[in-house]
Amino acid sequence: MTFRQFAYRNVVRNRRIYAAFFMASVFSVMVFFLYSMLLFHPTIEDKFVQEFAIVGMGIAEIILYIFTVFFLFYSMRAFLQARSREFGILLHLGMEKRQISRLIFLETMLIGTAAIGVGTGLGFTFSKFFFMIVREIVMLPSLPLYVSWKPFALTIGAFFSLFILISFIAPVFIKSGKIADLIRGERKDDNQYTYSKVRGYLGILLLGLSYVLATLTSNAIVLKLFILLPPIATLGTYFFFTDSAPLFLQRLRSSRRIYWQHSRLLSISSGIIRLRENARMFFIVTIVSTIAFMSVGTLASLTSFASQYRAMNPLGLVYVSHPENIEEAKHIAQLTHELNEEEIAYSLTKFKVIQQVSSFSDSTVNILSLDQVNQLANHLDHLSIHLDEGEALFLPQSNSSYKNLNERVVKTELGDSHVKVKIDGAYPYQLFPSYSIGSNVIVLNNRDYQRVVFSTLRGKDTSFNYYAFHIPEWQKTKDIGLSISDTVTESFLLESKGTLPYAFDNPGLSYSIIRMTFSLLLFIGLLLAGVFFLATGSFIYFQLYTSLAQERKKFDVLRRLGLTDYELKKIVNRQLIPQFFFPWGVAFLHSSFAFLSLQVIWDALAEISIVKELAIVLIGFTFMQWMYFYLIRWRYLVHIKASG
């Protein structure tokens, strides 16, 4: 048998241990390849979509690659240390350390090459399905499958170099010492897993502090907490697993009433040992799981913003024209012509908005007439307003502003017109996009409004025209008024050209961009979360199967002493459930409190609730974790019972 054959048989013999590691590597390569396929797609001609795809996929590939580096290094370190007995026997039989290094190099490259080949093959196989999903998300007419050497070269080059690097560095992870110590294998001195009561209480204190701060956060300090809380929570999590949890279990062990009960003695004792041995692994699983929860949850909250976009933008098109605008008639004619040409039903309400200074607040107030407001309200199927002379009503810019304005009663005199009005409450519906018509808007009785108009004829004209297009099928307007939108955008980006005498807003176009952006980000985040999820599972899978031989011997002895299959399953459950759900539960708790802070941000930005989306994300992860647990437990029980 040649040396290469020996390396190959080593991999095949340990295939059960390497299975989860291999699967996670394959999935990482596949996702990386899919991102590369979209990154180099030749038919994406739209400038924004192309730039966004390049930036989004590029960042995702960098994150994925960095995580894969960490994952592979951690896994290889654990694999090699678990095989210390095997290496001790080989050294005892005369193999040199140089040959051990060569053996590890061949084994790592064999697994890496297979993972790259399978991952790239699966990636290309699912490329068409991937393009179909992306095409629907970004609303492209077509995104055909193509063949190019660039995605293959980038994927194979990136991961092949990574596996070569790991192959050279991996021998450093082998424990040094006497051959006899290596042959003794995984036996560990109990003193190696000591814990500190001070660090134990400190871990609980840090986690409690981070949870309290996340709960009590406000708009004023939320951004500062987003910088401060992650390091506090991370350090607290590390101390919790290395010191706080062992401290609690040791207290539990000292209680004979709880500890000395049937199979609890074995389960708790085994749990303490596993927790001490795998504290760092639990910490890593918790942090990675938290990142997966947070990334998907944050992106899902962005999707919630997109889904509630219509409520914040009740109009289909908005055109604002100031007195010096000479293109007003031309632009309105263009918009109506394009709407008619596309056969999009609409209703147009023109407002003459007059600006006056309020004597109550010494600030500018935008004034609308009752007839014009009622016309738009009827188009939107809202209630009409009735106002007597001298009465006025606030028009809210958002739901929260309505709650504040509806409780206010203001008596004021309006600027040069000297019209005295009493503003009592607010209209219960949002008629205009937030702040598109100003931040302080009131509606007057028609006679009072005409008196204000008459005063502007004698002095400086402080009015502007506001064209409100109500379009039921508003998402179809993304191609309406593109030339006007381009001019407004260009003027905004190039401030040196001055301010345009008009403004134009197309919520349908904005929504298509927002929807595409957020949906693509969510899709990218789900793929990354899938990699994280498989990686965390592989950590646990590896820890279980590296100690499988010892567990077989232990349960074989217990079965000879009369342990039933029911009691065996009960003990296995008590051993596996903490390993699967203890770090996952801590990550769940971390994410829940972090989402409280995220909700504060969304309340400030868009006044929307993200509870539904975040609940779906957490429930989805919970379901996948249970499925993964039952799958691993089933295979674990099969291997345990095989010894009988």
UniProtKB/TrEMBL annotation:
GO terms for cellular component: plasma membrane. InterPro entries: ABC-4_Integral_Memb_Prot (IPR052536), ABC3_permease_C (IPR003838), ABC_permease_BceB-typ (IPR027022). It is found in: Cell membrane. One of its GO terms (biological process) is transmembrane transport. It is a multi-pass membrane protein. Pfam families: FtsX. Its main location: membrane. The chain crosses the membrane at residues 20-40, 52-74, 103-131, 151-174, 201-222, 228-249, 281-302, 520-544, 580-602, 614-632. Keywords: Cell membrane, Membrane, Transmembrane, Transmembrane helix, Transport. It comes from the Bacteria. The keyword Transmembrane helix applies. Residues 62-170 form the ABC3 transporter permease C-terminal domain. PANTHER family: ABC TRANSPORTER PERMEASE PROTEIN, ABC TRANSPORTER PERMEASE-RELATED-RELATED. Belongs to the ABC-4 integral membrane protein family. This is FtsX-like permease family. It comes from Sporosarcina pasteurii. The lineage of its organism: Bacteria, Bacillati, Bacillota, Bacilli, Bacillales.
